[in-house]
Specification:
This protein is mainly beta and 226 residues long. The chain has one helix and 13 strands. The protein has a single domain, classed as Chondroitinase Ac, Chain A, domain 3.
Length: 226
């Protein structure tokens, strides 16, 4: 089965302007204003408090996850792909049930070690360098924690996280009733640490497959919510 992937456009080289033209431009700008104009970057999407979100949780009849806590080694220069599955349905001959999570690291994704807690703290990854990554799932809210905190990925070749909500309770707003009309509001959210605001990060949503995918440049806490 084919899978949708986000392809980042290649960075185009910036053409250099002649020095004389740059100086002339600066002088012209200075003559048009008594004070310099500082261009502020556009603000990112605002964070929201945890109390304003309804987090998805497993359906009552959903099978438990095969594992909720696992560690693996990622190597710079090699692709890494981790998947988490539910247990198979009773009587099924399949070794696993539905997929819940997929996490991918490309060959060039690993950028910099965490600033503390590692012998190479703060250093850039070189080909062949490795690091142990821990993935933990809180089963009551399907909240994902990825460690070590501070690990950085290349913004032009980020890691990718995909979560699926097909096995989640369809009472999405916890009002005691099924809410199929609210499915379009489900998104993937990030929280830096407990108590911090949550930020919407989902970039690709496939409602037919009940999945949402996001690009990651660092580790944090992640959950599906409306």
């Amino acid at each position: 089965m084919s899978e949708t992937r986000m392809i980042l456009p290649a960075t185009r080289p910036r053409r250099r302007r002649p020095l004389g033209r740059i100086i002339a431009s600066l002088l012209l700008a200075a003559g048009c204003s008594d004070s310099p104009v500082l261009m502020e970057p556009p603000p990112g999407p605002p964070g929201v408090p945890e109390a304003s979100l309804s987090f998805l949780r497993p359906a009552t009849l959903a099978q438990p996850l095969l594992t909720t806590d696992t560690s693996f080694v990622a190597t710079r220069g090699e692709e890494t792909k981790i998947e988490l599955f539910y247990e198979p349905e009773p009587g099924s001959t399949d070794p696993v049930g539905e997929r819940f999570l997929e996490f991918e690291i490309d060959e060039g994704s690993l950028l910099r070690y965490p600033p503390t807690g590692h012998p190479k703290a703060g250093q850039l990854f070189q080909d062949g360098d490795t690091i142990t990554i821990r993935l933990h799932v809180q089963t009551d809210t399907l909240l994902i924690e990825l460690e070590p905190t501070g690990l950085q990925f290349d913004e032009f070749d980020p890691a990718e996280l995909e979560l699926r909500y097909g096995e989640a309770d369809d009472d999405y707003d916890d009002d005691g009733e099924s809410d199929p009309e609210l499915e379009e509001d489900i998104d993937l959210w990030r929280q830096e640490k407990p108590g911090d605001p949550w930020f919407r990060i989902g970039q690709i949503k496939d409602a037919d497959e009940d999945k949402i995918r996001a690009r990651l440049t660092s580790f944090s806490r992640y959950a599906l919510a409306i």
